[in-house]
Amino acid sequence: MYFPTSLVLSFGILATQVAGQGYQCPLMMPSDATALKFAYGVQNWLYQYYNTKGGTSASQFATFPNATTVQSNNETLGMNLATNFAGLEQQAKIRVQAIEHLAKSKDLSSPCAFTWPAGINTSVMDFFTAAYYMEATLCGTFIGLADYVQNPAAAFLMARMSAEHGIHASYLGSYINPAPFSSGSMSLTPAFTPEMVLTPGSGQAVRANVGYLGAYIPQGCLAVPAAPCGVSVLFGNLTATLSNGGMNSTGPTSSGPYGSGNTTYAPSGTGSASPSYTGPVATGAATVLGVSGIALVGNFAVVVSHLL
User: Fold this and answer.
1) Class of domain 28-262
2) What are the boundaries of the signal sequence (predicted)?
3) pLDDT tens digits, residue range 159-218?
4) Which DSSP symbol is given to 224?
5) Distance between CA 39 and CA 135 in Å, rounded?
6) 7 contact partners, CB below 8 Å, separation of at least 6
7) Which one of 74, 78, 169, 245 is CB 3.0 to 4.6 Å from 302, fit for a cystine?
8) pTM value?
9) In the 8-state DSSP scheme, what is residue 261?
10) For the chain, what are the domain ranges?
11) Where is 240: in which H helix or E strand?
């Protein structure tokens, strides 16, 4: 195909000018700012939990099953847990800083007092389970928030944050369930709408409330970002859709070492619920509680239904 020389030269000059100036994305929309403030609120909530109620010394994990077992790095399980939880706290802090960096000078503070599940000084096992619950919930929260932002930089951060939380949840989950995968799985990792996240759970044990933070984040603390296009977001097992008929979202069917039961996660509003989540997700040579070994993490999807 022949292109006139003048056209080719003009296009080349234009391309050079655009490349030299750099691509300019639109400024963040008001919904982006609200979503970032929501993200900051839940992420800071997790960081404060690790910072005030966590454990970073081997002695604090002395009652964890097989805490004295020597692992492949010649450290005991208790020592490795202390090291890893110190790392989880640091990663939670970095994520807070990442949101602050993207938001620049915007006010991200929330006028409310958060509460948290039990810490390590109450029970090592309760702390461990709560940490899993929180990481798994925030994984789905940030997957959901990616649908509530328009700026590419904000969407990138939401995706990166969800991956981080998924990796951490998989690590924690690998100590709870030795067989997290299911050949009958029909769903990807669950995603949660902001409305759902701010809803109180079922009132059962914390592990049964993945997807709900309303018991710890008081109503009115965090503003819910507006859904895109002025409609509602519906998260299905595989994809997200937009609907004028309200919103609904479903969570996992609870089964496994913690008992059984059917837990449906539905935010406020109306609409048809998606099918229940039945599949999972973490990988590696998992270590179930009470069985020695080292947990390896190879996938950042979250183990939900098989850990509840």
Assistant:
1) mainly alpha
2) 1-20
3) 999 999 999 999 999 988 888 788 999 999 999 999 999 998 775 556 668 999 999 998
4) P
5) 13
6) none
7) 169
8) 0.73
9) E
10) 28-262
11) strand 240-243
